[in-house]
């Protein structure tokens, strides 16, 4: 599908199941991010949060999944995101991507892809951009 | 206020040996179902030396080693007030199971907004493999809520 890239083209969206505590515990171990604010409700409450919440890097990893199922990872050149809002327990994230242009990077033609994570209420949690070489 | 003297500070190197078990665990944790990330034969057929590390995996190097925690301690940022503001990667070469990746980071900037209510720490890192080749560059912005 990447052979026929056009500006405005949308990547097939990726919808995740609602964030639960098991997912956060697994990501804590797998990512090496042991910050208790993501797994320990007592710590989270002391920090002024209503409950634990998702690691930003978990949301970014989901965005990575959207990109690498559209194009092989070996074509990914850059991937930058801003964490705009907290992804709470129960949030069901949909990852979306859209080609916003074709640019040249170090002599390679690349698709510039805008990516976002939003929850079931339409709130954007993470927004970013990737550059994917078209070969 | 975070002491600006830390701008330019370089972290101790963080070494992360990539192994298939950890990469499969990471794939499971993020719900990855593409077999290129879990099946060695599929990965090799796709041109990788072994299972490739997914795009965001190398962030783990400085988590596992404790380098990020050390930086937060040095700068006096409690975990309870920490947020991840931005993250970026530039990719140069694949990192696969069997590779030993070393990450060294540098504090590029520290600044504040809203009269000091929010402070930002910008960190730039390089990840190199056992041959010394640049695999990826990482950019991280942490936010401290004061």
From TrEMBL, chain B:
<dbReference type="Pfam" id="PF13452">
    <property type="entry name" value="FAS1_DH_region"/>
</dbReference>
<protein>
    <submittedName>
        <fullName>MaoC family dehydratase</fullName>
    </submittedName>
</protein>
<dbReference type="InterPro" id="IPR016709">
    <property type="entry name" value="HadA-like"/>
</dbReference>
<feature type="domain" description="FAS1-like dehydratase">
    <location>
        <begin position="6"/>
        <end position="137"/>
    </location>
</feature>
<dbReference type="InterPro" id="IPR029069">
    <property type="entry name" value="HotDog_dom_sf"/>
</dbReference>
<dbReference type="InterPro" id="IPR039569">
    <property type="entry name" value="FAS1-like_DH_region"/>
</dbReference>
